Amino acid sequence: MYFLGLDVGSSSVKLSILDGESGKAVASTQYPKSELDILSPQSGWAEQAPETWWDCIREGCKELFAKVDASKVAAIGISYQMHGLVLVDEKQEVLRPSIIWCDSRAVATGEEALNGLGEDWCFDHLLNSPGNFTASKLRWVQQNEPEIFNRVHKAMLPGDFIAMKLTGEITSTASGLSEGTFWDFKENAIATKLLDHWGIDSAILPELVPSIGLQGEVSAAAAAELGLQTGVNVCYRGGDQPNNAFSLNVLEPGEVAATAGTSGVIYGVTDQAAADRQSRVNTFLHVSSTEEKQRNGVLVCVNGTGRLYSWLRQTLAQSGGDPSYPQLNALAENVPVGSDGLNIYPFGNGAERIFQNRNLGGQFSGIDFNRHGLGHLVRAAQEGIVFALNQGFDVLKSLGGSCEVVRVASGNMFLSDVFSAAFANTTGAAVELYETDGAEGAARAAALGAGYFASAAEAFNGLSQTGLIEPDQKRISVYQDAYQNWVNGLPK
In the chain, what is the straight-line distance between the N-terminal and C-terminal CA atoms, in Å? Predict the structure, then answer.
């Protein structure tokens, strides 16, 4: 019996088929093979067409099902880029491009709600400032595009849109609504007070389904498009970072996951209603949360992680060199810790939460034309990403988060030995590497939600640890010196 995982990112859509018997992925792909475009009609804006995500799923399924028997797929799980806004009319037609996670236009909108409702109410009930999250983006459309807003039937997250395309039904999850600041943690219900403050009817939000469990069945139309059997169950939905944590078996208090894809994230699970009143980190309902055992995820995010690295590679490729990521990683290995005083600040991908939603812009400092070369740039980029993440790690620790062990997937920036060593020695945490990704994790969760696995423990029997990177006591002080030098030059 097979399970299909869909991981809808802003760079690409990844698909994976999990064999339930072995607990291992038997086929995977991504589409497109390059990177999806992010549209930026104005400075600080970031949009994508939701229909493009569906096109990627259709093409990816075509490739997958040329390798495996689609008739054996018993359930589907969805992972998706968090904080995006998708608006549809009564015919389920998309009304405008999705305003995605790294779009900064709604910062002032969220600030207005924080002041209007009061910090005490927001942090006690939402565990966050409305900030630049999905709810604020919805309010922005109401204020600035009233002709579109008046045609809205439902406001959704990206994963809700994919579920709608699969099943024909418009639903969401409590975990998903919490990531958009639509969830009242004290009332354990939709945050109607926030919506009332803006004059938005809560009926605009979808009906709720469990994060892990039956969410609907694949329609005949979707089955025909994707090559699936009609009636396949959709049994899981999670934002990309809660899903990354699930993929790594990070489900219980004290467990921590990290990822370094387009953005960089550290995600710690807690059973506490932890709120950072400076809004440098954020708290959402974890996908493993139940009424009996509430589990929250405290999320540290740096927007420009892999985006900085891909920008560096693309810029170099314009000169005709077109270096690969392994080639860049090898260049960085020949440069000492601290990059000989060269610092890079990876803040060129929108407003940064760890700096209270300021849009600092990516910056370089300390360049010496007589000493620094390409290897220094590469290493400074990798170290700058780690140092930025460590700013949020410090906040996570102050909220009681455990930081002794961090689980990561063997991919993205963690493929670089320089990056992994910098992460372990700067944070002081041991890094456990696992052979998995978001699409495989979504497939595993679908199998759990469908009842194929009797428990989470059984679901993770097939998860393999591939490595362990521990802090090097002889090098920690060197990294701390480099980190402090980086902190001293932080943009104001």
Answer: 55
The kind and range of the H/E element at 308 are helix 305-317
pLDDT of 398: 81
pLDDT of 99 higher than 80: yes
Q: pLDDT of 270-284, one tens digit each?
A: 998 889 998 888 999
Exposure string over 373-407, b if 16+ CB within 10 A, otherwise e: eebbbbbbbbbbbbbbbbbbbebbeeeebbbeebb
Helices (H) and strands (E) in the chain, counts: 17, 23
Burial of 198 (0-12, 13-18, 19+ CB in 10 A): middle
Going from the C-alpha of 337 to that of each of 302, 384, 483, the distances in angstroms are: 21, 11, 10
For residue 391, the SS3 value is: helix
Domain boundary among the residues 214, 229, 248 is at 248
Is the pLDDT assigned to residue 401 strictly greater than 80? no
| Residue given tokens 């949360």 in the structure block | 289
**Number of structural domains the chain divides into:** 2
DSSP 125: I
The pTM of the full predicted model, rounded to 2 decimals, is 0.91
Q: How buried is 44 (Cβ within 10 angstroms: 0-12 exposed, 13-18 middle, 19+ buried)?
A: middle
Domain encompassing residue 343: 302-435+466-488
Do residues 81 and 185 share a domain?
yes
Residue 52 tokens, joined: 């493009």
Inside any domain, residue 271: no
**R_g (Cα) of the chain, nearest Å:** 22
Structural domain includes residue 278: no
Q: Is residue 415 part of a domain?
A: yes
Determine the Cα–Cα distance for residues 276 and 464; give it in Å rounded to an integer: 34
Q: Which residues are 189's β-sheet partners?
A: 184
Tell whether 51 is covered by a domain.
Answer: yes
Tokens of 118: 């009061």
Domain of 349, CATH number, reads 3.30.420.40
